[in-house]
């Protein structure tokens, strides 16, 4: 199959990478796993055993008229322990390489079908100026866009840093969530070739 390149000849690409059937269940599983892996998982609360304080019975069992109590660290007391205290945990889910690559291919194929993948010969700017990048995107009629280049262009990265809904990544930095999140994905010809090699 071929991808149309803006202002240049069409680019021949692999059917298995850019013409794959849409697999919603696979993409959902991989996206959920990716989001789960991004969770910090460091929350920690103290149980009644871990709260600092005396273990002495606050008052005798009978005769005071007050409710019976055996421990100031009881969960029903103010500043007591938490009944089911949250502990640090690893939320990451295992995703096989084959599944991950399959999901990326499926997303790229769907982007092609929806005309959301824009292939350009090169995407460069002369200076790290946001104004220059805004004008370049306006010329291509692009707003909400992910720009993927073969290697990270510092000028491009710095210019896009302050723009809302514009992100710049190299091929190694792409992930299923960012590919889905943007309305358009701009890819250079060299990046397309690298993606094909990476997903082969």
What would you note in describing this structure?
The protein is α/β, with parallel strands linked by helices and 200 residues long. The protein has two domains: 2-39 and 91-199, Ribosomal protein L4/L1 (Ribosomal Protein L4, Chain: A, 3-Layer(aba) Sandwich); 44-87, no CATH class. The protein contains seven helices and seven strands; from the N terminus they run βββαααβαβαβαβα. The protein has helices spanning 15-18, 24-37, 97-113, 130-139, 154-160, 176-181, 189-199; strands at 2-3, 5-6, 11-12, 117-120, 145-149, 166-170, 184-188. The protein is elongated and about 95 Å long. The two termini are 16 Å apart. Residues 43-71 are annotated as: Disordered. Keywords: Ribonucleoprotein, Ribosomal protein, RNA-binding, rRNA-binding. Part of the 50S ribosomal subunit. One of its GO terms (biological process) is translation.
Oligomer: single chain
CATH class group of the largest domain: Alpha Beta
Total helices: the number is 7
Unreliable stretches:
none
Q: Whole-number average pLDDT?
A: 94
Please count the beta strands (DSSP E, at least 2 residues each): 7
Q: What is the CATH fold-level name of the largest domain?
A: Ribosomal Protein L4, Chain: A
Helix content: 25-40%
Question: So what's the overall shape?
Answer: elongated
Gyration radius, in Å: 27 Å
| Backbone structural class | alpha/beta
Main beta sheet strand tally, sense and closure: 5 strands, parallel
Fourth CATH level, the homologous superfamily of the largest domain: Ribosomal protein L4/L1
How big a fraction of the residues is strand?
Answer: 5-15%
GO molecular function: rRNA binding; structural constituent of ribosome
Family: Belongs to the universal ribosomal protein uL4 family.
Pfam family, one: Ribosomal_L4
Keywords: Ribonucleoprotein, Ribosomal protein, RNA-binding, rRNA-binding
């Amino acid at each position: 199959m071929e991808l149309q390149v803006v202002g240049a000849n069409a680019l021949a690409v692999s059917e298995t990478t850019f013409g794959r059937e849409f697999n919603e269940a696979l993409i959902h599983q991989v996206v959920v796993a990716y989001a789960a892996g991004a969770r910090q998982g460091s929350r920690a609360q103290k149980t009644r055993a871990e709260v600092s304080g005396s273990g002495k019975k606050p008052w005798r069992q009978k005769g005071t008229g007050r409710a019976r109590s055996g421990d100031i660290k009881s969960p029903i007391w103010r500043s007591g322990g938490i009944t089911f205290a949250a502990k640090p945990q690893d939320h990451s889910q295992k995703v096989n390489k084959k599944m991950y690559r399959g999901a990326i291919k499926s997303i790229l194929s769907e982007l092609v079908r929806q005309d959301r993948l824009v292939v350009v010969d090169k995407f460069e700017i002369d200076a790290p100026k946001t104004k220059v990048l805004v004008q370049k995107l306006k010329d291509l009629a692009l707003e909400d866009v992910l720009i993927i280049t073969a290697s990270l262009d510092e000028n491009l990265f710095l210019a896009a840093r302050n723009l809302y809904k514009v992100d710049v990544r190299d091929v190694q930095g792409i992930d299923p969530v960012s590919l889905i999140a943007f309305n358009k994905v701009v890819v250079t010809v060299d990046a397309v070739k690298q993606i094909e090699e990476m997903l082969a």
